[in-house]
Write a structure and sequence with these properties.
The protein is α/β, with parallel strands linked by helices. It is 41% helix and 14% strand.
Length: 419
């Protein structure tokens, strides 16, 4: 089968890209032809299809939105078109489809950087589109169901009008940016974007239910959990040292202040790996200045650099205060036989089985989190047992083979329906 794989980055930056390269490897291993479609960038992995890629947004070195030159009119206009509707994306994916004759277009992520025109392009070429869902971008203006002004979950885009996003400045704390994103979603509504998608692959049942509430037909929703790619895993020595570990973005919705408060004025060691694009990590460091703590910030590291900490930590913590979809950090913890302490919220309730693969704590409650930290620190044998159960859960529920089987069955089903 020939599959066009669409993502706005063709280098590893976050969870969607990890999945992209993992699934590309597995599909190719099973004899399928994978054809990438993305945006040119200096960090991109090499591919013979790069000539079909969209032009870079900016110089080709920028990764995050705050790195682009906002005074450059050409960059600003290109960014606007790619948020609203990019004719370049539509033209180039149609050219790629014409030249390669794929069976399926599998979209990982397109919002804000490519626009829904990639879906229109495939639809007009009569190639079925399947989209993997990473967040709530079809529904919520800031993708997260999270209101930064009050640091709390907000479902006004689901239950009411998206104009609320402008009122509450949900995108970058800006009325203008929020309005632009509302317009982008209105364009998608007008062009019936979701109706042109043959199937949605959603990693978690909780997220699937939100899309059902939004109005996506149940027949289009396929809950296929993501997987951990063990292909390159070497046998390593696992130990359970006296420190806890957090890996991920250091942003407010990730529950970082709750995490910091849980370890403040405590004897427990915490290592934080990750960074913030909006300076929240510096805010946390300033908060801790002059306070008693054993918290170390290591910044953003490559996974090869993260592995030794996963090998040695006592357990990991996922304190999120937004609706996580399927955080890779939890699966990576299980891969290294480490228990997880996670918020009792959304998908995490199913992903982290309380008193089996870890512990759940009351979302946003730093006192409850500290109690869970103390409990596992004082009961090391139980922490080790939870970690072993996590490894078993990973191999049975989130295996590469199971994911591939479900995915290719869906591909074949959609392909046959569209013949």
């Amino acid at each position: 089968m020939k599959i066009i794989l669409v993502n706005y980055r063709y280098f590893i930056s976050g969870g969607p890209e990890k999945y992209l390269f993992n699934i590309k490897e597995i599909l190719e291993k099973n004899g399928h032809t994978v054809i990438p479609f993305s945006i040119k960038h200096n960090k991109n992995m090499p591919t013979s299809y790069e000539n079909y890629f969209m032009k870079p947004l900016g110089t080709g070195n920028e990764v995050y939105a705050n790195e682009y030159g906002k005074k450059n009119l050409r960059t600003v206009m290109t960014a606007l078109s790619r948020m609203l509707y990019s004719f370049e994306a539509k033209r180039k994916i149609k050219k790629l489809i014409k030249d390669t004759q794929p069976d399926i277009v599998y979209i990982i992520y397109y919002q804000n950087k490519m626009s829904a025109s990639v879906i229109d392009g495939a639809y007009e070429m009569k190639v079925p589109v399947i989209q993997r869902i990473s967040d709530f971008a079809h529904i919520c203006v800031n993708n997260l169901f999270y209101r930064y002004q009050k640091n709390q979950i907000c479902e006004r885009c689901l239950c009411g009008s998206r104009i609320n996003a402008v009122k509450y400045k949900c995108v970058n704390n800006s009325v203008f940016n929020s309005f632009l994103k509302v317009v982008a979603l209105k364009i998608q509504d007008f062009r019936k974007t979701t109706k042109k998608i043959s199937a949605f692959i959603i990693p978690a049942e909780f997220t699937s239910n939100k899309f059902r509430e939004f109005g996506i037909p149940n027949r289009k929703i396929h809950c296929i959990p993501t997987f951990y790619n063990q292909t390159n895993d070497e046998k390593v020595e696992i130990s359970y040292d006296d420190f806890f570990l957090y890996v991920g973005r250091v942003d407010p919705e990730k529950g970082m202040l709750t995490l910091i408060k849980a370890f403040e004025n405590s004897p427990y060691n915490l290592v934080i790996i990750g960074s913030s694009i909006n300076g929240h990590d510096e805010t946390l460091k300033n908060y801790l200045r002059g306070k008693d703590h054993h918290i170390t910030f290591l910044g953003k590291l490559d996974f090869e650099e993260i592995k030794p900490y996963l090998q040695k930590c006592l357990c990991t913590i996922c304190p999120s205060e937004w609706y996580e979809n399927m955080p890779n950090s939890v699966l990576e913890s299980y891969a290294y036989q480490k228990a997880v302490i996670a918020s009792r919220l959304g998908t995490l309730v199913d992903l982290v089985s309380d008193n089996q693969t870890g512990l759940n704590f009351t979302t946003g409650d730093h006192v409850d989190l500290r109690e869970k930290v103390k409990f596992l620190f004082d009961n090391r044998e139980l922490a080790i047992r939870f970690g072993m159960h996590g490894r078993e859960k990973l191999l049975t529920e989130y295996s590469e083979d199971l994911h591939y089987e479900r995915l290719i069955n869906l591909f074949n089903s959609v392909k046959s329906e569209n013949n």
